[in-house]
Structures are given as structure tokens and as C-alpha cells.
UniProtKB/TrEMBL annotation:
Record's keyword annotation contains Cell membrane: no
CDD domains: MetAP1
Binding residues for a divalent metal cation 2: 111, 174, 207, 238
Gene that encodes the chain: map_2
UniProt biased composition (Basic and acidic residues): 255-265
Protein name: Methionine aminopeptidase
Native species: Streptomyces ziwulingensis
Length: 272
């Protein structure tokens, strides 16, 4: 069932989204050379507890995965792109880190992901992250009332083609609201003018992710962490977006706003 939220519901989701954006910004600031992934996980746990929020990831048990997920943030490094299981690993200079978090506040969910470089970046990694961010902004612009779901997917696919990255269609965006995953799957490529008609009140998570060299994926033995099949670096950007009468409303913008990253190369995470 696809639920269209009221303006009041969307405002409640925006409260959750602002919290998610704030915590992701904090994690980006903490992600420095020598920092352990578990330190980032524990910071996110503390912030969620302090806020009286609830992690959407804790005890999450989809058809894939090995047992319920017992962490509150996905931390994926280098060739890992989705569902990275936090573990004891000290970040190294040049690591590409993707942080993905979904939280419930007062019964409403928001989901967002953010990729950063730890320490010294390479042009190749900066370009990869940039592609996901440009694709996300293009998809958001396409999320206009009256458009179709395929317009969002096509916008992402067009940016991937422009940058020369292949697209995986197994994992993509989704509906969101009263739960982390609601009806509607949003592939990261598609045909414009096709699919569900976008109407005010629809709330979705849009999440382009690309691997530099392949659209094939493999799972780690932990059953969760998804990597590029060829070992190439990967990046992921995601926002929760509401369709409104006035156009798309991004509910998970981070502090200092993403405009500091729009139209330019991505800065390293150190010192953010």
C-alpha cells in the first residue's frame, strides 16, 4: 500500500530527517585517520539514545543478511557500498567511507547516506562521490508532482552514463514514512514517463550508488556487507524526499547544507 502523507506528517518526518542529517554530519567530522569504525557506531548509538529515537536498523532482518542487524549505522569502506557491518577497523588515509543511517522519531522514519574521503583524496574517488551527489540532485529535481517514478530513475541513470559508471538495479530507493521501507522501489536507472505518478504527499528515499568498474555485487561472509564484484571503489548518496504541491522537499539536508559540495570536488572528511 502506498500512503500519501499530510503536510503535518511531512513536517514530522522533517524533524526526523534533520536529526539524521545532523548525526551524519557529526560522523563525517569524526571520520579521521586512525578512528575505529566502532567509535562511529557508538557515537551514533549515543546520539539516538539521547534523542529518544529508535534505529530502523537494529533487529532489521530482510531476506538477505545473516541474522538480525545489530547496529544503528551502516559503515562501508572502499569497495563496500551498502549495508557495511560496523566492525573493528581503523580508518586509513585515503579510505572512501559511506555512512548510511535510518531512524524513527515519534513514529516517523528518515533515511540518508553520505560518502566522504578520509584524509588524502584521489581525483578518481572524488569524481565517483561527485557522480552520486550530482545524480541525487538530478533525481530530486525530477521528483515533481505530475512526473513519474521513471523520471527519477532516468535522471540517475543519465548522470551515471555521463560519468561512465555502470548501474546496478538490484538495490535502489524506496518508499518511506511510518516504516523505513514502504512500497515503491526506485531503480537507479529507468525510462522517463513510466511508472507510478508522483503526487503530493508521497515520501521516498532516493539513493544513487555506483561502483567505479562494475554493476555486479558480492556479499561478505557476514551476509550483510555488499561490495563491488571487481573490488573497485564505490560511493552512495541518499536523501529522504517529500513530493509537495510546490515541488520536492528534501527532509534530510545536513547542517551547512550540501551546497558546499555542489558543483565542486568533494573535500576530505578530516577536519569537517
Amino acid at each position: 500500500m502506498i500512503e500519501h502523507k499530510s503536510p503535518e506528517d511531512i513536517e514530522r518526518m522533517r524533524v526526523t530527517g534533520q536529526f539524521v542529517g545532523q548525526v551524519l554530519a557529526e560522523l563525517a567530522g569524526l571520520a579521521a585517520v586512525g578512528v575505529d569504525l566502532l567509535d562511529l557506531e557508538h557515537h551514533a548509538r549515543r546520539r539516538i539514545k539521547e534523542r529518544g529515537a529508535e534505529s530502523c536498523y537494529w533487529d532489521y532482518a530482510p531476506s538477505f543478511g545473516r541474522g538480525p542487524f545489530r547496529n544503528v549505522v551502516c559503515l562501508s569502506v572502499n569497495d563496500a557500498v551498502l549495508h557495511g557491518l560496523p566492525h573493528s577497523y581503523k580508518l586509513r588515509d585515503g579510505d572512501l567511507l559511506t555512512m548510511d543511517m535510518a531512524v524513527m522519531v515519534d513514529g516517523w522514519a528518515a533515511d540518508s547516506a553520505y560518502s566522504v574521503i578520509v584524509g588524502t583524496p584521489t581525483e578518481e574517488d572524488l569524481r565517483l562521490i561527485e557522480a552520486t551527489e550530482v545524480a541525487l540532485e538530478a533525481a530530486i529535481r525530477a521528483a515533481q508532482p505530475g512526473n513519474r517514478l521513471g523520471d527519477i530513475s532516468a535522471a540517475i541513470g543519465a548522470v551515471a552514463a555521463e560519468y561512465g559508471y555502470p548501474v546496478n538495479l538490484e538495490f535502489g530507493g524506496h518508499g518511506i514514512g511510518r516504516t523505513m521501507h514502504e512500497d515503491l522501489h526506485i531503480p537507479n536507472d529507468g525510462r522517463p514517463g513510466r511508472g507510478w505518478k508522483l503526487r503530493p504527499g508521497l515520501t521516498i528515499a532516493i539513493e544513487p550508488w555506483f561502483a567505479a568498474g562494475t554493476n555486479k555485487i558480492v556479499f561478505d561472509p557476514d551476509g550483510w556487507t555488499i561490495r563491488s564484484a571487481d573490488g573497485s571503489r564505490s560511493a552512495h548518496s541518499e536523501h529522504t524526499v517529500a513530493i509537495t504541491e510546490d515541488g520536492p522537499l528534501v527532509l534530510t539536508r545536513r547542517p551547512q547544507h550540501d551546497k558546499q559540495r555542489e558543483g565542486r570536488r568533494v573535500a576530505p572528511a578530516t577536519g569537517r
